[in-house]
Specification:
CATH architecture: Alpha-Beta Barrel
Bound molecules: zinc ion
Distance between the termini: 28 Å
CATH class: Alpha Beta
Largest sheet: 5 strands, parallel
Shape: globular
Strand content: 5-15%
Number of helices: 9
Number of domains: 1
Length: 227
């Protein structure tokens, strides 16, 4: 089987989630880091390369406190647009490479995964990114709708409720620390997930527990039906 290069969630029965934060860093990303630190939790930050260069201290803090940093391109560029406005391959390559270098130079740690802005990446591009950069292409399975174009930003209560109504074992939670409204919603959302018994892992830790056999473990009834 070819290596799996795109994920929305990981099949598991373990109550683990990966909380991801996109489009930063911004000065208020420190508040997200404070909230995670107070609860001894780790997350994954899909940073924009040019903002990583603007706020190197925040990136260094992320690494020092055990968080993972992923690639969200250099300028938050769309990597795919429908014909006739396709994105030239050299632009895709440059956007990813420059962000990779910005993160590596700032923190000394190379990112291992990419979240394409807007989730826009074709199957073919995703495969190429895996081959060229070794990146797994990470989407999401919980979306609080805090960056949906044309929609009002959710209040803290709405953000938390949307996360809790979609969450499940092995899911990847999308959020955007670009927005102060999201940052405000993080502490109580973390507490609610902890109260439900969820453990927090980084994206790479979540992908590492992907067990292809777990997804096809049959129930006793299913096994009986086969006999
Ligand atoms: Zn984004």
């Amino acid at each position: 089987m070819p290596p799996k290069h795109r994920y929305y969630s990981v099949p598991t029965k373990k109550k683990v989630v990966a909380f991801t934060f996109d489009d930063g860093p911004r000065p208020w990303t420190n508040q997200v880091l404070d909230a995670l630190k107070e609860r001894n939790l780790r997350g994954t930050f899909y940073v924009i390369g040019k903002d990583a260069l603007r706020y190197p201290k925040i990136l260094k803090r992320m690494v020092a406190e055990g968080h993972e940093i992923g690639n969200h391109t250099m300028t938050h560029a769309w990597l795919f647009r429908n014909p006739p406005n396709e994105v030239p391959h050299r632009v895709v390559e440059q956007e990813i490479r420059l962000a990779h270098e910005a993160i590596l130079q700032t923190t000394g740690v190379a990112p291992k995964t990419i979240r394409p802005p807007g989730g826009l990446l074709t199957e073919e591009q995703s495969r190429w990114v895996y081959e060229a950069f070794g990146y797994v292409d990470v989407h999401w399975s919980v979306n609080p709708g805090d960056a949906t174009p044309g929609r009002a930003k959710p209040s803290t209560a709405v953000f938390r409720r949307r996360v809790l109504s979609q969450v499940g074992p092995g899911k990847i939670i999308l959020s955007h620390d670009l927005w102060k409204s999201t940052v405000a919603a993080i502490p109580s959302t973390l507490d609610a997930l902890l109260a439900e018994g969820y453990e927090f892992v980084t994206v790479s830790e979540l992908l590492a527990i992907d067990d292809p056999y777990e997804a096809v473990q049959w129930t006793a009834e299913e096994t009986k039906a086969l006999q």
